[in-house]
Amino acid sequence: MKKIGLFGGTFNPIHLGHLRAAEEISDIFALDRMIFIPSSYPPHKKKEGILAPHLRAEMVRLAVSDNPRFTLSEVELDRPGKSYSIETVEYFRRQLGPRTHLYFIVGLDAFLEITGWKEYASLFGLCHFVVMTRPGFEKKFSREHLPVELADEFCYDTQKGGYAHTSGFLVYPAEITGLDISSTRIREFLRKGNSIRYLVPPAVEAFIQTNHIYRNKDSEATG
Questions:
Q1: DSSP single-letter state for residue 34
Q2: Within a domain: residue 186?
Q3: Is residue 202 part of a domain?
Q4: Which of 26, 134, 156, 181 is least buried, going by the fewest C-beta atoms within 10 A?
Q5: For residue range 1-28, what is the model confidence (pLDDT) as tens digits?
Q6: For residue range 89-121, what is the model confidence (pLDDT) as tens digits?
């Protein structure tokens, strides 16, 4: 029974906060592999200001290349249109089979908006959720953070330390090291000509500098 983490995001750009979170979650849940999945264009974000998908994917590839547990998937980039989590999880469920445990990694801020996702209720019947806390949000995940409409479908499992869904999958709270790094701040630094050293992996920093990206807002969407 393999345990696979699915870590999606815009990764605009990927930074050390993403990587450290993935490393800690991999350790906590003894994951065999963590798959980073750059989104094409998320339905909840404006396309403007998001770097071209192939450039974001290349930065993820560079960032994860030295970690044997980490890998890149371009499944969302290969699909036309916007990226929906339900389609991505269904894809990996088909590809990896029912005997693989899938762990969908998400931050608390994103989880609090899950009721706006496409077919969100179906996700709880396809995989486990790992809900990470981030700086600026509550330190503890509690029952009140579960979707109100589905609250009766969950019960807390004290042995497993998560909220068990009627499907058998769980929503696990996970406190991780709070690295206060954001892609937005990194882009702001670059537009001002400031250093981003120690915020992103060296290979990603070199890629950004070589390709002259994030210098201004107009260049971000086109790459």
A1: E
A2: no
A3: no
A4: 156
A5: 899 999 999 999 999 999 999 999 999 9
A6: 999 999 999 899 999 999 998 999 999 999 999
136: left (phi over 0), alpha (psi -120 to 50) or beta: left
Q: Is residue 136 part of a domain?
A: yes
- Rounded Cα distance, 182 and 57, in Å: 17
**Residue 200 located in a structural domain:** no
For the chain, percent of residues with pLDDT exceeding 70: 91
CB atoms within 10 A of CB 143: 11
What is the CATH number for 155? 3.40.50.620
Task: Say which residues have a Cβ less than 8 Å from residue 112's Cβ, sequence separation at least 6.
Answer: 145
Taking the C-alpha atoms of residue 53 and residue 59, their distance in angstroms, rounded to an integer, is 10
The range of the structural domain enclosing residue 130 comes to 3-180
Distance in angstroms (rounded) separating the CA atoms of residues 7 and 92: 12
